[in-house]
Structure formats: structure tokens, C-alpha cells
Design a protein that fits this description.
This protein is an alpha+beta fold. The chain is 38% helix and 24% strand.
Amino acid sequence: MTYPHHIAVAPPVPAPAPQRKFRPLAWVAFGVGLAGCALIPIPILNNAGAILGVAGVVMSLISVWGTERWLSVASLALSGLAVIGTVVVQQQLVDDLNDLTGKSAKPNNVARAAAPDTEEPEPPAESWPSASDLTVDLKVTEKQCFGSAGCSITVTPELNYNGYLDPDTFGQYTVTIAVAGDESGEVISTLEVSGSEYNAIPLFLSTKSGDVAVTGKIVSVN
């Protein structure tokens, strides 16, 4: 009588558990990223937070092949947020500081710009004065009389401005004068004027006697 042979079946070998050799590194990266995020709103110290964030990014990328995927992703997100958040906050602080310094400088600029407006503007220079603004005197520089034959007189015109006029406010112009007293009649002469300077050309006159008055007047200004 033959009995059946029973073949022993070995139990299945359980699959090896996945290795978690970088799991501690992932948790360190998670903690570093969390610390960096906590330092984001603190000026100056957030520089250290940014450095921690960079270190956390590096450790997260290394640990992604040796730990749970969610832990590596979470560590990477926190570390990246620490870096980006620090850059954004520092840029905002710089912009706020520039706004404050710009606003404090504006009143000074306005004051400097407004200063010239407080001064009285200089009157524009006119081309020339009117004839009524001027008078002419005749200065006798030489006189020689010959009895009944009359006298020879040399005079130099002297131009005078009315007291309220400033000669330097005018440009160049010509003054025509008429001199009375010469035995031949009125003598016409011109003066070339520029500001307070003019060419005083001597005039030679002949009078009938030494008692004749020699006078001058302004004829025109142009």
C-alpha cells in the first residue's frame, strides 16, 4: 500500500523593510527650515534664518532618497520658505527706508526751490530812457574873448539822469542835444551812451560877446 508523500512548503519570506538611513537628516532639515521661518519677520536675525533655509534645502534634497517622501517635501518647503520670505521682508524694509528718507528730504528741496521766489525779480533792462528823463549841462573847459570880435568857447556836454533812474538798467542808445549860444545858431551834437558811460565830445563855439549864455537841451533819444 502506497501512501502519498507530503511536500513541505516553506513560508514566504517577508520583503525587507525599506531603508530609512536619511530619516534623521530629514528631521534635522525640517527643524532647520522651521527655525528659519520663525526668523523671517525679525530684521538682521532673518539673515541667519536665510542661511538656515539654504542648509535645510540641501539636507532635504539629500534625504529625499532615504526617508519618507512627505517628510522630505515638507522639509524642502519650509527651508525654501525661509529663504524666499527673508528676501521679501528685507526688500520691503529697504523700500520703507527709502520712502522715509525721500519724504524727509522733500521739504528741504521745496524750501530750496522756493527761496528764489521770495526775492524781488530784477526789472528787465529797457532799451533807453525818454528825453524827459535826461538833462544836459555844458561845462566850459576853455574860453577866450577878443573884445568886440566876440569869444571862442570850448564846452563839454555832461549828461545827467533824473534821481530815480539807474543808468545801468539801460542798454546802448544815442542822445541828440542842441546847444544854443553860438553866433551861427544852434549846434547839434550826439552822445553815444552805454549804461552810465558816454562819449563826451568837446564843442567849439563862437559867441558875439562874453555875456552870451551857452545852454544845451535834449532833442531826442533813440
